[in-house]
Write a structure and sequence with these properties.
heterodimer; A: 91 residues; two-stranded antiparallel ribbon; B: 440 residues; alpha/beta; 7-stranded mixed beta sheet; 6-stranded mixed beta sheet; 40% helix; binds flavin-adenine dinucleotide; binds iron/sulfur cluster; Fd_FixX (chain A); metal-binding (chain A); ETF-QO/FixX_C (chain A)
């Protein structure tokens, strides 16, 4: 199963206007060795397109891994607003 | 202006237990939870130990949980599997005593937390869901309330309990932690709920009915040498299958994503056959961090008008997959301390130190201290997750496979195999390290 299909199983209430994850400085990502946020994220949220980092925050599972793993604290990381984001039925 | 005696941040087991204790002693408490309902953001394996809940609520809570249908199966058997690429060594323990006096139930947190919150509400606490605590309100260097995500959402109070879970966002803001947690202090776990018929689950685990079940912890080849534990737990009509690895290892390895590791686990013949045709279906996919840093990673747990409980205090004993019990017990002890504080009218750091002393006298800090070096020993010594499980499997295969080799020769071969792949000195050192880590 692809990660997109896995995420498709879940319920989300997305706050489209207010992304809760933001790259602070793209220049830092350009120089970042291995870009560990990409590989460590369990939801495949981060994608490097050769020039900049795409952040597909809609699929985020709010685990906090990217927050901890980024060597430069280059992600402005918040939980989504109350009542938004991932909504587990089983947990 | 809204006023409560106590504001609890987070409606997980830690926060709910603190609120239960406080509200049942007549203290006005609000629990603020960002999820749509308590449990909607929460994930665990989910083995819920019962003794802390009995202490907090009463002995009858177990029957109540069964009647309310908020638990999955009574764990009457626990297993540990060691995987090599093509083999498995199984060790386990089943006990009749667990049938009549349950030790632990498997649970699904979205259901369990929600039920627990309703129970807490009945004691008089107010659960404010769909609401995130953004920050504290300060006066003269003391916390006097919280700012929530709601318009005019300030809540003033005499004391705050931080039960925010593993990401220490507010613990940092409160100044109780100088530095954020690091990739060595947490594991990332992913989990799927795999639907399966009740009968098939009963068959697989050899249990007579849908109220009894088993757990399997899995280490070995699936984690590619990284420090990781997989788990497979039986629910009523589904299986919880998960895989957790230390973030530091995942970062260093830089080849596998967490879901690829879960897929590795699933593709192992022993797991794959167990799951059968259900292998590729799932009802939900989730991810959550598990505190792994233990004793050394704990923040300051108390200060003027504030206490930290549960995962926010890094109170997890990952070797024994115990976290929810620490959460419940620490919540209860924080609640008790605050009840005393209200009696005395004293919320100073000096008085609230009582909470820390209670923790120190409980199993929580004793266990965390005992295992304080184990995670770092394991993390630095990948042979525990890679070489040993495969060596054990190869040895068993060699020993049990009948091909005409005399037994004494076979033993010599096995011995040679261990010596070659790990070395005698290496094995001795490993044994000592393990011993040191477990003995504490
Ligand atoms: C995969 C996995 C398997 C596990 N298996 C087991 C097991 O088998 N047995 C066991 O005993 N333990 C297990 N654990 C550990 C256990 O889940 C935790 O120790 C336990 O949940 C901690 O409880 P808590 O109340 O401290 O935190 P949490 O359960 O994380 O609760 C924190 C709550 O606070 C809320 N919150 C956070 N910030 C805010 C905010 N700013 N405003 C409002 N609300 C907020 C969250 O939404 C959440 O509801 C496992 C953990 C994981 C991830
Ligand atoms: S780890 Fe941090 S700096 Fe590196 S690419 Fe990701 S966000 Fe950018
Ligand atoms: S919080 Fe977790 S799921 Fe969300 S983007 Fe970061 S690593 Fe991915």
């Amino acid at each position: 199963m692809r990660i997109e299909d896995k995420l498709f199983l879940n319920r989300y209430r997305t706050d489209e206007e207010n992304p809760h994850l933001k790259i602070i400085n793209m220049e830092i990502c350009k120089k970042c060795k291995n870009r560990p946020c990409i590989n460590c994220c369990p939801a495949g949220v981060y994608e490097w397109d050769g020039e900049s980092m795409e952040v597909k925050f809609e699929g985020c599972l709010e685990c906090g891994t990217c927050r901890i793993v980024c060597p430069y604290q280059n992600i402005e990381w918040k939980y989504p607003k109350g009542n938004y984001g991932i909504l587990y039925k089983f947990g | 202006m809204i006023r409560f005696d106590v504001v609890v941040i987070g409606a997980g087991p830690a926060g709910l237990s603190a609120a239960y204790k406080l509200a049942s002693s007549g203290i006005k408490v609000a629990v603020v939870e960002k999820g749509e309902y308590p449990g909607s953001k929460n994930v665990m394996g989910g083995v819920l130990y019962l003794s802390p809940l009995k202490k907090l609520i009463s002995e009858t809570i177990v029957d109540e949980m069964l009647q309310a249908n908020v638990v999955e199966r009574n764990v009457i058997e626990q297993n540990m599997w060691f995987l090599s690429d093509d083999g498995v060594i199984k060790a386990g323990h089943r006990n009749e005593k667990w049938k009549t006096s349950p030790n632990a139930f498997t649970v699904l947190r979205a259901k369990f937390d929600n039920w627990f919150a309703k129970k807490v509400e009945k004691t008089g606490a107010l659960i404010i869901s769909k609401t995130k605590v953004e920050d504290f309100i300060w006066e003269n260097d003391e916390i006097i309330g919280v700012k929530t995500s709601r318009p005019k959402g300030e809540i003033y109070c005499k004391a705050v309990v931080i039960a925010e879970g593993v990401n220490p966002i507010l613990t940092l803001k409160a100044g109780l932690r100088k530095r954020d947690i690091t990739p060595k202090m947490a594991a990332i776990a992913v989990k799927e709920i795999i639907p399966m018929s009740t009968e098939r689950i009963n068959d697989i685990f050899g249990v007579g009915n849908e109220n009894e079940g088993a757990t399997i912890e899995i280490i070995g080849s699936w984690s590619k040498g990284m420090m990781g534990i997989g788990f497979l737990y039986s629910n009523k009509d589904s299986i919880s299958l998960g895989a957790g690895v230390l973030i530091e290892d995942l970062k260093q390895n830089n080849k596998f994503t967490p879901y690829e590791l879960l897929q590795n686990l699933k593709e192992h013949p022993a797991i794959s056959e167990l799951l059968g045709e259900n292998k590729n279906s799932a009802n939900e996919y989730m991810a959550h961090l598990i505190p792994e840093g233990g004793y050394y990673s704990m923040p300051r747990l108390y200060d003027n008008r504030i206490l930290v409980v549960g995962d926010a205090g890094m109170m997890v004993n990952s070797i024994h997959r115990e976290g929810s019990n620490h959460a419940i017990t620490s919540g209860m002890l924080a609640g008790e301390t605050l009840v005393d504080a209200f009696e005395k009218g004293d919320f100073s750091r000096k008085f609230l130190k009582k909470y820390y002393l209670k923790l120190r006298d409980s199993f929580i800090i004793k266990d965390l201290k005992k295992y304080k070096d184990l995670t770092s020993i394991m993390e630095k010594n990948h042979q525990f997750f890679e070489i040993y499980p495969s060596l054990l499997n190869d040895a068993a295969y060699r020993f049990l496979n009948v091909d005409g080799t005399p037994k004494w020769e076979m033993q010599k071969e096995i011995f040679e195999m261990f010596r070659k792949r790990r070395g005698l000195i290496g094995m001795t050192i490993d044994a000592l390290k393990m011993w040191k880590g477990v003995r504490g």
